[in-house]
Amino acid sequence: MVAAVVDITADTNTCNSSLRENGVRHGWTPFFFTNSLSLIACGNILPDFNVFKIVMANLRYFSFIFLLLTVWACDKDETSPSFTYQVAMQYRPHVQTFIMEAEKRGIQIDTTNLIMEGVETLPDSICGLCNHTSSQSDRQKVVQFNTSQHCAESLIELEALVLHELGHCFLGRLHDDTLLPNGDPKSIMKTGGRKMYAPCTYQFGNEPCDNTFKRAYYLDELFDPATPVPDWAQ
Ligand SMILES: [Zn+2]
């Protein structure tokens, strides 16, 4: 116990004298680094008056380092965040459709910040997710799709699903469950269900089955919610 106390005292004294000697003898580089290491190793930075003297004696060097750190910090703030583009192959044609249909209507879409992937981890009740509903491109957009077959039984349903999620992620659109006069959904942004312009799968009786002619309206409405009610929905 006593020996331990003596050892600690001896270390502290050695440190202090080492700092004093280094402070007098050396140029700035070895002086600064040697003393910094010594101070840290000694663990007595705050109470030692030598620290104050060292800082004052090397004020210009500390100022220079501070200036460098400030410039570096400013540079970091002004640099735009780096985004990832990573869209799984099966979704790419539909993302292209979204971009082209937007362009036709004078809307430029930049998808360089888009990650789109199919996952098996979403609950059955969720077919797609967009991580951030906004038309701003200031952050990484991530769209996940449930790969379960019930979510998209045809390519046209998959298209509607992709357009719906991109409507959240790149147009900032929320869900809209309004109905048209004939009872059809007003928008591709309706909650759940992607069959509003699906082709005929099974014909039952004389009911109209092929709804692909409705696609043009739903695309118009996606990019402009004020699109008038189409004739077929009166
Ligand atoms: Zn949605």
Would you give an account of this structure?
With 234 residues, the chain is an alpha/beta fold. It folds into two domains: 2-78, no CATH class; 86-233, no CATH class. The protein is built from seven helices and four strands; from the N terminus they run ααααβαβββαα. It has helices at residues 2-25, 28-42, 49-57, 59-78, 92-104, 155-171, 215-223; strands at residues 86-87, 114-119, 128-130, 141-146. A four-stranded mixed β-sheet has the order 1-2-4-3, with helices on one face. α1 (2-25) runs antiparallel to α2 and α5 (92-104) crosses α6 (155-171). The protein is elongated. Residues 1-47 have low confidence and may be disordered. The protein binds zinc ion (ZN).
Q: Helix count, per DSSP? A: 7
- Beta content comes to 5-15%
Number of strands: 4
Q: Gyration radius, to the nearest Å?
A: 33 Å
The tally of structural domains comes to: 2
Ends distance: 95 Å
Shape: elongated
Which small-molecule ligands are present, each listed once? Answer: zinc ion
- Low-confidence segments: 1-47
Major β-sheet, in short? 4 strands, mixed
Q: Specify the structural class.
A: alpha/beta
**Relative helix content:** 40-55%
In terms of quaternary structure, what is this? single chain
**SSE pattern, N- to C-terminal:** HHHHEHEEEHH
Q: What's the average pLDDT?
A: 78
